[in-house]
Task: structure prediction
Amino acid sequence: MARREGIDPEAAKEEIFAYCKRKGALAVGVADLETLERIAPPGHRPTDLMPKVKSVIALGVGGQTQGAWALPAKALGYFGSTESRAYTIAYGCAFFIENRFGIRSIYCPPDMDTEAGPRVPLQSLKLHAEVAGIGARSFAGDILLHPDFGYMYFASVFTELELPPDEPMQDNPCPAPSCVSLYRKTGQTPCMKFCPVQCLSGEIDEDGNQALMRYDMAACAEMTQQFEAVPSMIADAVQARDSVEREDALFDADNKILWYKMSVGSGGLLAQCFECMRVCPIATQAPQADPVRRFEFAEADGE
Result:
């Protein structure tokens, strides 16, 4: 791989951002590497994955359409996720950097750390995006929100190309004014009120800003992140007392859905819950929160 000489970091950054947006990214940023190294725990820092990394690029793609938010919960679990699109763009971006500049790059895997367990990721894509300034943490379990695009899915690219970093968002769009109003009356924001397992809580200060956010990940995971569903199902079948009990363990109504998702190669193999985002005014009503609004903004800008 021949390294291109005389690379202008600012110009290279513009080219990379343009590539990502051309492929469908709504927001792109470069996270400050020193900040990531300081915050991320040992074993999950960027240099633990790529020792010579110089820049961490974060990108976000649009979440649901307005139509998806109106679906019943059992259907929204199928229609809600666009994360695979973010990963595809990041994968292509890594190749783009190597082809264009001759500098090593990798698509940061969004997967779990096999040594740390099924709920510990190799890298925090959320941290990358937050430090890169393309999302801010919300009351909804630290889900990142963007003031213009609302709810996005994120992906990251690591590269040995040194790029100037961006700043984190100065103003957090969460909580929205309507959320502050409800909190003043009831002590809960919409996401707290409508969480099916009540795993969200927090406090808003006198200025209407986040003062404290609590997220019970265990309660949330019990319903929405059943990474152990398939092995648990198989274990129940192996331990069944007879053929009837074994058939029930493998083919009851809920388990059939898992087999179906596996057979059709669904990206949403596991259960998902979007109820906190369904009632979030930022996720659903941000200026460019759905494709129709984004198209209207692009037309207005003459793009």
Notes: The radius of gyration is 21 Å. The chain has 16 helices and eight strands. The longest helix spans residues 83-101.
